[in-house]
Structures are given as structure tokens and as C-alpha cells.
Amino acid sequence: INDKLCSITTPLTRGDRVKIGTDDDFHPQEHWLKYAQTYRARVHIRHYLNSIQKDKDKGAVKLELCERCHPLPGDEVVGFKRKDGSILVHKCSCDVALSLSSQQGDEITQVTLKSDPAKTYPSGLIIKAVNRDRFLYDIMDYISNTMKLSIESINSTTTDEIVECNIKTFVHSISELKELIAGIQSIPNVYEVK
């Protein structure tokens, strides 16, 4: 907007010059509905989202992931049938799952989360290290270039030459997360990754 890179949710004012970039791999998101100003734009976004949902729903049971334990493909998981036909998926070790199993044991169902190259899951890492030159560069290079993963945010603080770095990234499976952790652990001066 006016030769500055802006979020798609930025409000426009009369006279703004807008250049729109496109990418075949990028698609409308549900949160765009909150920002679309015209009826026509909202109709097109809803139409696209509904068509995608119908494709997903054909012959498939809707799986919802527990927001507390964040199960990933490859984790040992358990599912609980809901009245609407969907299945809520938890890690087997999740406190909520343990509680539900004692209350709703007959609602438990076998579930396997399959890795999908087109689907990623949010993941948080906490890294502790001894500070050195290019430390953050090496971390970002490993995540972005070696592992080819997206980084949502990085928050790093250094106290007495000890770095604590919190990174939010996206992974495809638990095995990829373990590979990411092992790779970061091998970077010089890294003390702990969890």
C-alpha cells in the first residue's frame, strides 16, 4: 500500500495505491472474513472456504485436535467420539484424555494422525545457550534453510551471556519435530532444547 509492504488486513483509505502480489500456493483464510468490507468479497471467501471444507469432509470423519496437548502425527493418540460425529484427538498422556477416559470410556475410538505435506502444526521451542557471534543466525538458518520450515516468531533475551530463545515454528509430524530438536542441539554453544 503506497509502496509499503502491509498485511492483507490493513484498512485502505481513499487514494491509496495498492499493488497485490499473488501466489498459487496461497489461499483465502477464514480470518479474512472479519476484514472484508464488501458483500461480494465475503461471498467469494465463504464460497472458497466451503468448497475446501466439502472436499475435506467427503468420506472423512472430522478430527479436532486438543488445544492443550497439541497432538502431532506420529504421537500416540486417542480419540473421543462427540455427539456431532466429530472426534476429539488427544495425546495418550494428556491430562484431559486421562480424565475423559474414566468418564467416557465407551466413547474412545482408535485414531491415527497421518502426516500430510500440505498440513503443518504449530510448535514452540525453548533454547538455552551460551551467547556467541551469529548464534541467532545459525538457529534461523538451520530452521529455515536446512529443515525448510516456517518461523512464526522469535523472542530472544540474553542475561550474563546466557541466551534464552523462544521460537514458534510449524512442523509436519513428531518425527520432524524430533529431528529439528536434535539438529538445533548440535549447533555450537546450545545447552538445552525443549
SSE order, as H and E? HEEEHEEHEEHE
Number of strands: 8
Report the C-alpha radius of gyration, rounded: 21 Å
* Helix count from the secondary structure assignment: 4
Shape: flat
What features would you describe in this structure?
By secondary structure, the chain is an alpha+beta fold. Helix content is 27%, strand content 25%. The strands form 2 sheets. Strands 1-3-2-4 form a 4-stranded mixed beta sheet, covered by helices on one side. The protein has a 4-stranded antiparallel beta sheet with strand order 6-7-5-8, covered by helices on one side. A hairpin with a 5-residue loop joins β2 and β3.
Labels describing this entry:
194 residues; alpha+beta; four-stranded mixed sheet; four-stranded antiparallel sheet; 4 helices; 25% strand; flat
Summarize, please:
The protein has 194 residues and is of the alpha+beta class.
SSE blueprint and pairings:
Blueprint: H1 39-57, E1 63-65, E2 77-81, E3 87-91, H2 95-103, E4 108-109, E5 121-130, H3 135-146, E6 151-159, E7 162-171, H4 174-185, E8 190-193
Parallel strand pairs: 1-3
Antiparallel strand pairs: 2-3, 2-4, 5-7, 5-8, 6-7
